[in-house]
Write a structure and sequence with these properties.
The complex is a heterodimer of chains A (314) and B (449). Chain A contains eleven helices and ten strands. With 314 residues, chain A is of the alpha/beta class. Chain A has an eight-stranded mixed sheet, with helices on both faces. Chain A is elongated, with a radius of gyration of 21 Å. Chain B has three domains: 84 residues, Four Helix Bundle (Hemerythrin (Met), subunit A); 197 residues, P-loop containing nucleotide triphosphate hydrolases (Rossmann fold, 3-Layer(aba) Sandwich), CATH 3.40.50; 144 residues, 434 Repressor (Amino-terminal Domain) (Orthogonal Bundle). Chain B is 59% helix and 8% strand. Chain B is built from 21 helices and eight strands. Classes of the chains: A alpha/beta (314), B alpha/beta (449). Chains A and B meet through helix 2, helix 6 and helix 9 of A and helix 2, helix 7 and helix 10 of B.
Chain lengths: 314, 449
């Protein structure tokens, strides 16, 4: 075990988090290509390594094929391969790295947050509330997770921390009704941003997903352009199942962007690369810790370079 | 879980089985596909490699290539290897210590520890009649302790009273003391979610472990986890020492790779699986059955067990007598549908039947889902007793009334009546064919034309 001192500042944290993510991938690449000719076997192993970083088979094949096209049968160094893979990944990720901007013309700018259980929706809302407050916006929170025990209390703690009022009802209450009240009140008070929490649900549960469509419908009723942003919170440790999650949540709730959480672990989050390729949904932010400051904008170059073990600024 | 992997492997093995003889190259090609299928199912790379190597070593041996059905042999070897990887036998919680036996639950944030704590508590209290106490050591996440208190109430299990401002170690000590004085059999310690690389929090766990000396240290892990599963499991095992794994969200459509990886790297058995949001949605884990399900060989044992649990004996016998007389009416049809729903609906049933794994996709396309069962039940409930006994009296105006009463359309009512008619015809055929006839013609003979 390595004992690490906590790096200060968010960039340090992000890099520390991501480079841990990158360790096994880059270790693999380095071991693979030290003074070696790029032959079929080497390419196949690279493809496997990319799959093992949660990139998914089709994306891994694409990156490998691109490499083969330009370097096949040539002597290659690990640095060269890393740079190449990072550039390829960055090309895919650059268009989706878009921060979440609250349109000031919307009052309130309604953000609906959805996802499967335990990905970090409530924590993300707490962090977003802090972010918007720091940007000088007046924020309101809606405790739409009326299913999980103490989810409301959890959001209320975040409300206290960020000074945002929390609209809540008792556990077991109708989520759609609560959202209706919250939106009405946010309009009355002229709030800038309304962040709506929802109960975690597995995307393959038809009844729970139907409940989510009801929430969306109720929001539409008051403001047919809302929700202005629907965020899917994805856990970075998730594997290829993330594809199904995005597919179904997009279909049911009209997801407009992603937030990737828990990137401070060893999870590589490589699945976002194939997600970007397939869906092209903006990735607004990444979560790299438990405190309110640990939500950062998603940066394609830093992410790609860190994923392959290169310095973020290079 | 496992559907995707099952589908992929099914395709590979279909091609293998068709071959009369197999060369070494055939096996190698098939294994390459197995490898990609496993990787795509989120099984970790090192685990996949060792798996494929083991299978190859046995498969290219003479026993396979010379056997009459080489394809089948390869499938069998993969099956055996899967069972080995998942752990050969089902293992339950081992609480044979001087009470109170402590169960400590650890894992990443959001893996489902708190819910699992309550589920295990409920299971031990209800099924094993133990006196159980739950205690939350989670001082990190806001309202985590309150969450466990509420869940404990729902599970009808006592929770340790919350004292604000205590450290996890202090809470653990207090829990142990309260359990000894209170004469509890089992204490469940729910810990805060933590990253396996967070040194400070991991030492805190070690401290709690040394205070409470748990009989079981369970890693709670999300079955949707990707390649990182090995790192998580290995680090928790190295640092804390695990005795078992609980997989959560097995009712999701994850690919189940995490299950294979974690077992393989830690050697710890998967002891329990969470299969839903309700507090009774916790089941034992049966490696051999899961391996069969992955390979599309079906899990008939689980099906039979589940049927035995859910279908009331009396009702089944009543139905059998009626069937023999040919007097199968709409009430019986409704009771059959209710039993089917108890068994986990169409999806649940289909997944356990051999060879149906691949059909499932087509079925999903054909819109056969449980809402149809619900609808059918509603329609039958809207009929009068006379109509249920004698479906022949249901004409146009009655159909309109039934449709209005059940919130459906006349077309829906017609469909139910048609299904009922088909089913009655099928039952008569069964009677005529008798037991032997059924064996000979199989299910094909029963399909309505």
């Amino acid at each position: 075990m390595t004992t690490e001192t906590k790096p200060k500042g968010w960039l340090g944290r992000l890099r520390a988090g991501l480079s841990r993510s990158a360790q096994s991938l880059t270790g693999g690449i380095t071991g693979l290509f030290t003074k070696r000719r790029l032959d079929d076997e080497a390419l196949e192993e690279l493809e496997e390594l990319l799959i093992a970083a949660d990139l998914g088979a089709p994306t891994a094949a694409k990156v490998t094929a691109a490499l083969a096209k330009s370097r096949y049968d040539k002597e290659v160094t690990p640095e060269e391969i890393k740079g190449f893979v990072a550039d390829e990944i960055e090309k895919t990720l650059a268009p989706v790295a878009q921060p979440l901007v609250a349109d000031p013309a919307r009052k309130p700018f309604v953000v609906l947050v959805v996802g499967v259980n335990g990905t970090g929706k409530t924590t993300t809302i707490g962090k977003l509330a802090r972010h918007f407050r720091d940007a000088g916006k007046s924020v309101m929170l809606a405790a739409g997770d009326t299913f999980r025990a103490a989810a409301i209390e959890q959001l209320q703690v975040w409300g206290e921390r960020t000074g945002a009022p929390v609209i809540a009802r008792d556990t077991g209450a109708d989520a759609a009704g609560l959202v209706y009240d919250a939106l009405t009140q946010a309009r009355k008070e002229g709030r800038d941003v309304l962040l709506i929490d929802t109960a975690g649900r597995l995307h393959n549960k038809a009844d729970l997903m139907a409940e989510l469509t009801k929430v969306v419908r109720v929001i539409h009723k008051i403001d047919d352009e809302a929700p202005h942003a629907t965020l899917l919170v994805l856990d970075a440790t998730t594997g290829q199942n993330a594809h199904r999650q995005v597919e179904i949540f997009r279909e049911i709730a009209g997801v407009t962007g992603l937030v990737v959480t828990k990137l401070d672990g060893t999870a590589r989050g490589g699945v976002v690369v194939s997600l970007a390729e397939r869906f092209g949904l903006p990735i607004h932010a990444v979560g790299v810790g438990e405190t309110a400051e640990d939500l950062r904008p998603f940066e394609a170059r830093a992410f790609a370079r860190n994923l392959t073990g290169l310095d973020a600024e290079g | 879980m496992f559907e995707t992997l099952s589908g992929r492997l099914g395709d590979v093995f279909d091609r293998l089985r068709k071959r009369g003889s197999l060369s070494e190259a055939d096996v190698t090609a098939a294994l390459r596909e197995v490898r990609v299928a496993l990787l795509e199912a989120d099984v970790a790379l090192p685990v996949v490699k060792s798996f494929v190597d083991k299978v190859r070593n046995r498969a290219v041996g003479s026993e396979v290539l010379r056997s009459v059905t080489p394809g089948q042999m390869v499938v069998k070897i993969v099956h055996d290897q899967l069972v080995e990887m998942l752990g050969a036998e089902a293992s339950d919680l081992d609480l044979e210590v001087v009470p109170p036996a402590v169960i400590m639950l650890v894992g990443l944030q959001g893996s489902g520890k708190t819910t699992t704590t309550a589920k295990i508590g409920r299971r031990l209290a209800k099924r094993d009649k133990k006196k159980v106490m739950l205690a939350s050591l989670d001082v990190q996440r806001p309202a985590a302790q309150e969450q466990l208190a509420v869940l404990g109430e729902q599970a009808e299990v006592n929770t340790l009273p919350i004292v604000k401002g205590e450290t996890p170690a202090t809470i653990a000590k207090r829990a142990m003391q309260a359990a000894r004085f209170g004469g509890y059999d089992v204490v469940l310690l729910d810990t805060a979610g933590r990253l396996h690389i967070d040194e400070a929090l991991m030492s805190e766990l070690v401290e709690v472990r040394d205070i409470s000396k748990p009989a079981e240290t369970l890693l709670v892990a999300d079955s949707l986890t990707g390649q990182d599963a090995v790192n998580i499991a290995q680090q928790f095992n190295d640092r804390i020492g695990l005795s078992g794994i609980v997989l959560t969200r097995v009712d999701g459509d994850g690919r189940g790779g995490a299950a294979l990886s974690m077992r393989a790297v830690t050697g710890c058995p998967i002891k329990l699986v969470g299969v839903g949001e309700r507090l009774d949605a916790l089941e034992g884990f049966h490696p051999d059955r899961i391996a069969s399900r992955i390979l599309g060989m079906g899990d008939v044992v689980s099906l039979v067990e589940k049927a035995a649990e859910s279908i009331e004996q009396e009702e089944a016998e009543k139905l059998a007598r009626k069937m023999q007389k040919g007097g199968f009416d709409l009430d019986d049809f409704a009771s059959q549908i209710r039993q089917m729903r108890k068994l986990g609906g169409m999806g649940g049933l289909m997944g356990m039947l051999p060879g149906v794994g691949k059909m499932k996709k087509q079925l999903a396309g054909a819109n056969v889902d449980d809402s149809i069962l619900v609808k059918t039940e509603a329609i039958i409930s809207s009929m009068t007793p006379t109509e249920r006994r004698n479906a022949k009296v249901i004409h146009a105006s009655r159909k309109r009334r039934i449709a209005a009463g059940s919130g459906t359309t006349v077309q829906d009512v017609n469909r139910v009546l048609k299904q009922y008619k088909d089913l009655s015809v099928m039952m008569k055929k069964v009677n005529k064919m008798g037991q032997k006839g059924l064996m000979r013609h199989g299910l094909q003979g029963l399909m309505p034309r």
